[in-house]
Amino acid sequence: MHSTSLNKSILHQKRQELDFLHHFYGLGYDLIDLSAIEQFDWTKLSEDDLGLMNERHKWQHEGSLFALRSDWTNAIVRYRQKYQLDSEKIAYSGPVYTLTNEKHQYGLETFTNDISKQTAVMKQMVDYIKNKLNISLSVAVISHNTLLKNLLSKEELADELTRKFIKERNRDALKVQLGSEHPILELMSHPAAEQASYVKEHMPHLKRHIEEMNLWESVLIEANVSYVYGDMLALPSQTYYKGISIQLYSEDKVEPIASGGQYSSPTNAFGIGLNI
């Protein structure tokens, strides 16, 4: 009985993976499949590569650095640049390995400056989650990488304790860490629903970024995500996100079922990954 159940579970997983790839191939995406083992040259590691290294299983052999793939976007960007691929839209599926677990991901990447094309990719992923996987999306959180960069120095933003206290919204700890007059404390003193208005009024140079968040928020509302809100203090899930960052949650879950954002490759791009 257990063997039958396990067999059915494996077949279901494989069919679901093929269904995802067939679905997005039919929507004009090119498919990509990469080795789970990546090879690096120590002298040519990018800032994003270095930022991900602490999360990788890695080893050295004959002067080269090898690591298990811990992130699909980073791997695809490196592959695209190495082989000069010109695909505008890419779909992928496969495992990623962090130091503590293995995840199976489905994902989409688009390499374009056109925001309407980027939001179209996000809508297609939302539609797939809701209509093909029959998973309702109850919450979407939108943030912008530039906001915290304007509130914190580079050293403050890189500090693990500061990031931890921001994630926890721990004002008392941040007051000790950054000083009572730090601008992030004033922003945190306002309710989350009022923070965007505060930024627009007191930080006019960030108005454009708030408007970008509003645009993506409206797209998700149109896609019938139950509750969508902007978070001025959200830390992006990946260090390489340079603009809009999005997390999608299914009902009663504390971890996002899907997350994504804008990054440079070397120009603007957008990707979103679904954890299965």
UniProtKB/TrEMBL annotation:
<keyword id="KW-0030">Aminoacyl-tRNA synthetase</keyword>
<dbReference type="InterPro" id="IPR045864">
    <property type="entry name" value="aa-tRNA-synth_II/BPL/LPL"/>
</dbReference>
<dbReference type="GO" id="GO:0016740">
    <property type="term" value="F:transferase activity"/>
</dbReference>
<keyword id="KW-0436">Ligase</keyword>
<dbReference type="InterPro" id="IPR041715">
    <property type="entry name" value="HisRS-like_core"/>
</dbReference>
<dbReference type="GO" id="GO:0140096">
    <property type="term" value="F:catalytic activity, acting on a protein"/>
</dbReference>
<protein>
    <submittedName>
        <fullName>Histidyl-tRNA synthetase</fullName>
    </submittedName>
</protein>
<dbReference type="Pfam" id="PF13393">
    <property type="entry name" value="tRNA-synt_His"/>
</dbReference>
<dbReference type="GO" id="GO:0004812">
    <property type="term" value="F:aminoacyl-tRNA ligase activity"/>
</dbReference>
<feature type="domain" description="Class II Histidinyl-tRNA synthetase (HisRS)-like catalytic core">
    <location>
        <begin position="19"/>
        <end position="271"/>
    </location>
</feature>
